[in-house]
Design brief:
The structure holds two protein chains of two kinds.
Chain A lengths: L1 H32 L6 H19 L3 H22 L8 H23 L13 E4 L2 E4 H23 L1 H11 L1 H6 L4 H23 L9 H16 L4 H21 L5 H15 L9
Antiparallel strand pairs in A: 1-2
Helix pairs in contact in A: 1-5, 1-8, 1-9, 1-10, 2-3, 2-4, 2-8, 2-9, 3-8, 5-6, 9-10, 9-11, 10-11
Chain B lengths: L1 E10 L2 E11 L4 E5 L6 H9 L6 E6 L2 E2 L5 H6 L2 E4 L11 H8 L10 H10 L1 H5 L10 H13 L5 E5 L7 H16 L3 E6 L2 H7 L2 E6 L2 E7 H6 L1 H7 L3
Parallel strand pairs in B: 3-8, 3-9, 6-7, 7-8
Antiparallel strand pairs in B: 1-2, 1-4, 4-5, 9-10
Helix pairs in contact in B: 3-6, 7-8
The chains are: A mainly alpha, B alpha/beta.
Chain lengths: 285, 234
């Protein structure tokens, strides 16, 4: 039983930090461009497929396959920004429509190219660590560590660098940021592309753990939006915390309650927290 | 320093500036006064590059800046302290000031300039770590000016700095403007509070419905019957 619960905690934390890394992209993109980019889920799915292709079909070492996949997804993110999102900035509805259209295009392309048959990566990092009688698979620990590291570095970059401070300033007051000399168009492009790269990384890591299907993006992006709202939109670390809370409550919930309703357990948390704190768990007013 | 010629500006179909000509000499404090909606703010926004004019010329230190972005104008020494302060409410006072140095090439060494701003506004030093949004209107105005100073401007545009401030704070603000001028910063001050603006400025323009209707020495304008009647309430 203990092994089961610990296992579910770790699973919940990993799945949750995958939600979290997509949620971070959602929150950043929304804060800087005013768009809820649902297509981040599709970019995550692309990251997973690119990694599978590089690792399984080309035979690249896994870390290289991940890096190549992230770069490819970021490039597509840049194309999407310059070709589409640039024209929908600060327009929630248009941005939403464009992102939904983009999801269809990306999903259909993947379906056409790689069919709907689930894909699996052969073991990337086999073996487990035994800690106090409990088995912890190495790959899950590694994925979790990378996700934490990337989210923490993003937070540091946002608070310690000029571009990060410009992003924070822009989120508070776009016009004042422009008056400080922030090149606002460029900032929006950088944030959009960085967010797609984060989603791509989430997908690339996902690929080492679970089966790939063209629809995973839709599932993850909904959870990511949920996490972002749970934490309070605009909160960097909160995106991770929100993701992990949802991931763990799904994991633990399905140990004691019917697994079929696992999606509801995280939702329950969201509803409860928003009832008592409408601005989100860590949100300010 | 600043030469504006034949500026026409529209919001949609509505023309808000009509053939505006304006000149600010090196080291001058020039006031732009006029009633609400006369086009004062629009003038400053156009100068800062936030709003594109339909036609007209803007030259800074002899160089045409009409095609430059806001960021390029800031880097070139033209800084707008906007109406309503527009400080970064969730940043500390210090982070607000540091943001002011964003456009500078040497921004990484801008920390030293904090001291100069604090020397001018001792209250900001006391509140250094405080969230800017929690300060009073007067303090926020000082912060907005301090933040503008961090860009090391040669020309500072001040948009309605007295808006919503108590008379005692307005006096303080007049002193600040004198101080800035003594430090070699050229100032263009848009104000509804004509008495304050005319007492600070060397020269002034009176703007009505997008047109300059009067201009001249500030002291002379303060005694002109039209100005007295319309703007000084006597």
């Amino acid at each position: 039983m203990i092994q089961l619960i610990i296992g579910q905690l770790l699973n919940g934390a990993i799945v949750g930090s995958l939600y979290g890394i997509v949620a971070l992209g959602i929150t950043l993109t929304f804060g800087i461009t005013g768009i809820v980019n649902f297509a981040l889920g599709a970019f995550m799915m692309l990251g997973a497929y690119f990694t599978w292709y590089g690792y399984e079909l080309i035979g690249l070492p896994y870390p290289i396959a991940v890096i190549v996949a992230v770069l490819l997804v970021a490039t597509l993110g840049l194309v999407a920004d310059l070709g589409l999102f640039r024209f929908t900035r600060n327009n929630l509805v248009n941005g939403l429509l464009v992102s939904i259209g983009l999801i269809s295009i990306i999903e259909a392309s993947v379906l056409l190219t790689w069919t709907s048959t689930p894909k699996d990566l052969s073991y990337v990092l086999p073996g487990s660590l035994r800690v106090g009688g409990i088995l912890l698979p190495k790959i899950k620990l590694a994925v979790f560590a990378v996700l934490l590291l990337v989210i923490a570095s993003t937070y540091l970059a946002l608070t310690r660098t000029w571009i990060g401070r410009a992003a924070f300033a822009y989120a508070q007051n776009p016009e004042a940021a422009a008056l400080m000399g922030v090149k606002t168009n460029r900032l929006q492009t950088i944030v959009t592309v960085y967010s797609t790269a984060l989603a791509g990384l989430g997908g690339a890591l996902y690929a080492s753990l679970y089966s790939l299907e063209p629809t995973i993006g839709a599932y993850y992006v909904l959870k990511a939006v949920e996490s972002a709202i749970l934490a309070g939109i605009g909160n960097t670390i909160g995106a991770l915390v929100g993701g992990i809370i949802i991931g763990i409550s799904e994991g633990i919930g399905s140990v004691f309650l019917p697994t079929a309703f696992r999606d509801a357990y995280g939702m329950l948390f969201l509803v409860l927290i928003l009832l008592f704190k409408p601005s989100g768990l860590l949100g300010s007013k | 320093m600043l030469e504006v010629a034949a500026l026409d500006v529209f919001y949609g179909k509505q023309q808000v500036l009509r053939g505006l000509n304006l000149r600010v000499g090196q080291g001058e404090v020039v006031a732009l006064i006029g009633p609400n909606a006369a086009g004062k703010s629009t003038t400053l926004r156009v100068l800062a590059g936030l709003k594109k004019p339909a036609t007209g010329n803007i030259a800074l230190a002899g160089r045409n800046i009409g095609a430059l972005s806001t960021a390029q104008r800031v880097a070139g020494g033209l800084v707008l302290v906007p109406e309503g302060r527009q400080i970064f409410a969730r940043f500390t006072v210090e982070d607000n000031l540091l943001m002011g140095a964003y456009a500078r090439r040497d921004r990484d060494s801008s920390r030293g300039d904090l001291e100069r701003v604090f020397a001018m506004f001792p209250r900001l030093r006391e509140r250094r770590e405080q969230r800017a949004g929690s300060m009073s209107g007067g303090e926020q105005q000082m912060l907005a000016i301090g933040r503008g100073l961090m860009a090391k401007p040669s020309l500072m545009l001040l948009d309605e700095p007295t808006l919503g401030l108590a008379p005692i704070i307005i006096d303080e603000l007049s002193n600040t403007i004198h101080n800035l001028a003594t430090n070699g910063i050229t100032i263009l001050l848009a104000e509804q509070n004509a008495a304050m603006a005319l007492s600070c400025a060397h020269r002034a323009y009176v703007l009505e419905s997008g047109r300059i209707v009067l201009d001249g020495e500030a002291a002379a304008l303060a005694n002109a019957p039209e100005v007295k009647q319309m703007y000084l309430g006597s």
